[in-house]
Amino acid sequence: FFLQSTVKEEMKFEKYFEKILYVSFSPDSKTIVPSSFDGAIQLWDIYPCREIQNMIGHLSGVEIVQYSPDCQMIVSSSTDKTIALWDIKSCARMKQLIVHPDVAKRVQFFPNGQFIVSCSFDKTVCLWDMKSGKKYSN
Fold this sequence. Notes:
Number of helices: 0
CATH topology of the domain at 20-100: Thrombin, subunit H
Mean pLDDT: 82
Strand order of the largest sheet: 1-2-3-4
Oligomer: single chain
Low-confidence stretches: none
Shape: globular
Helix content: under 10%
Distance between the termini: 54 Å
CATH architecture of the domain at 20-100: Beta Barrel
CATH class of the domain at 20-100: Mainly Beta
Largest sheet: 4 strands, antiparallel
């Protein structure tokens, strides 16, 4: 039994990246944002295939990135042990959270966009209020 694949490469993003760790699609499916070891967060327009924003602020590699549900912000975690919240239009870092004693391996917006959850190899999960930037405690 042979299954023929119908998947084909649609486009190739031609730029040097130092080890891509994660890629996130925007909720509106118009842009992508990869995370890489170089510490920069680059927003790419899918059609046409081009870089449109570059957000710099982490001191080392970016582990993961994710868009907010309304496509207005990006959250990122870095090996510099910080989580950053970015405004997409201005490319400005809105908040920086020093979260875990170890690297936050995953960060994610809640579906309503009001909270961020993070987890780390330090065996903790943290919940953050987006407006205040404060961590909820148990």
